[in-house]
Amino acid sequence: MQQVFLSFTYSPHPDHVDETRALLQRVTAVIESMDLRVVTGEDLGGETLTDEIRQRIDKSDALVALVTPWRDRQGNKVAPPWVNDEFTYAKAKDKRAFRIMHPDYAGAGMYAAHEYTVYDKNNLADALVKLMKTLALWKRQSGRPMRIEIAPDVAGQRFDPARVSECEFQLFIDYEETGWRKAKIWPEPGALFAYLPGVPDDAKLRLRMKIDSETWQSDFQSPVGRMQLSRRQP
Question: CA-based angle 35:24:139, to the nearest 5?
């Protein structure tokens, strides 16, 4: 886990400018203190869920939304609709997402049952601590990048990188199998390596490659520096 999209209103309600800016500064500091990069849509200056915003969320590992008061065109104090749209989009894309909410809007919206916290403008510490714990949990669940040497289970043979059309990995965590995820392959002198974006320490790992019309796959095992793959029957 490396990047978090931070969703917030760029033009807070006039009565809430100072508290919104203070919350934004402290949330940004918390995310960066967890060695995570913050991405926003502030430079776009819009208040809609554009294709560019979607792409930035897609490229992020998680989203944190600040649901703070905004003034609509009729002068009403409301939750910024595009912040809720960005949160909903992230959840629909199976992204990790967390909301820090003004008391007036606590639990509102389609994903009311999902994790969120309510902030107190006079004491932001409680909300920031919950955010920090949530980020720490996400990082543990995401795991760490891993480099695995892959080889056939036949002595003296090697995989030809030019023939590999796809490489994927699957995890076994808490007695459940995850879906297959893409892995990158990279040839080095005398060996072929798979680069995995994130493997939790307590997970079992299985690799699968498509080579021409064949499928090669390993069994589940604890992540090690080298894994052998066997040819699977069609």
Answer: 30
Q: Determine contact, residues 5/39, Cβ cutoff 8 Å.
A: yes
Choose which CATH entry (3.30.70.20, 3.60.15.10, 3.40.50.10140, 3.40.50.2300) describes domain 3-141.
Answer: 3.40.50.10140
For residue 225 the two structure tokens come to 């520096």
pLDDT in tens, 127-171: 999 999 999 999 888 888 899 999 999 888 889 999 999 999 999
pLDDT digits (tens, 9 = 90+) for 33-67: 999 999 998 766 666 778 889 999 999 999 999 99
As to burial, measured by CB atoms within 10 angstroms (0-12 exposed, 13-18 middle, 19+ buried), residue 87 is buried
Residue tagged 């021409």 (tokens): 212
Whole-structure pTM value:
0.73
Q: Please check whether residue 32 is in contact with residue 24, taking contact to mean a CB–CB distance below 8 angstroms.
A: no
